Amino acid sequence: MRLTLKKIAEMSNGQVRGDPERVITGVASLSSAGAGDISFLRDLKALQAALESKAGAILVKSPCDDIKTDQVITANPSMAFAAIATIVAGERFRRSPGIHATALIAGSARIGRDCSIGPGCVVEDGAEIGDRAALYPNVFIGRGSRIGECSLIYPNVTVREDTLIGKRCIIHSNTSIGDDGFGFVNEGGRFLKLPQLGAVKIGDDAEIGACCTVARGALDDTEIGNGVKIDNHCHVAHNCRIGDDTMLVGYTKLAGSVTIGRNCMLAGDVDVVDHVKIGDRCIVAAGSGVAKNLPDGSVVFGRPAYPIDEARRLLALIRRLPEMREQLRDAARRLKALEVLSPKPEGEQDAKPSAE
To answer: Counting C-beta atoms within 10 Å of the first and last residue's C-beta, which end of the chain has fewer, N or C?
Structure first.
């Protein structure tokens, strides 16, 4: 990569403070950057690191006189840095176009222009691989599946039959897309398999981490929207629907037929019960279990999940339970002592059981 600060400013809708013709060849953190690198100042907590940095330039939100190196002032330094890092990654990890001699490509499969298909890949009948897509070694693409242009499929990924993956998607190693959903019927104490006849549809610009499973639908399709980001070790069961630009963090598990809206965040190790509907812009805190529908904009925590303010109050009460238990025991002892010490009113006798 060779970009001038002038070009970087154009890319980030920013302004250069310093030499606009300075050439940047890499990206790095503030502490490790050299003269050819650009870094970024996320917030003022890292100001000292920026002052000590040897970076050739730093992306900042507002100009800083104390930083002596060149600066690019932009509204979102993190986003601008990510765009530059994407260029670096594209060059560093680019795979040369071509089909390896050990790949097995069905005669009816269609391979786009400038694709890279690595050793041991299998592309079955009727499958389509879009232009400039890359399949790393040992990827399986099932019959009738389609991979969009510029998508990247890492080693040992399985994409089962009739799966549709959009443009510019990334699927990380050892993930399975389109495996059978967990569907069985009980007959006389025996479980009989219910065939899973749906498919999986994934929109554009989605990314699915390593060791994930996305099950095909039982009858209708499992659907993952545009821009969805799924972390490693997540499970999406059959017939789930995930709205655009939603994020699932590691170890999140969705049971069958869960619906999640747009722009949601499900933090690590979240469980969602089958058929639950989560609205748009919801946040589910780490370790929570969602057992009922959530309206738009909900922020919940706990197992089961409660609105965040209510969950905090419950946690505060739980912490006080040992103290409250002792208080109740002390109150019971006091009441018992009062009963022993207090004489009964004259004429009041304990009831005796009838002889009859």
So the answer is: C
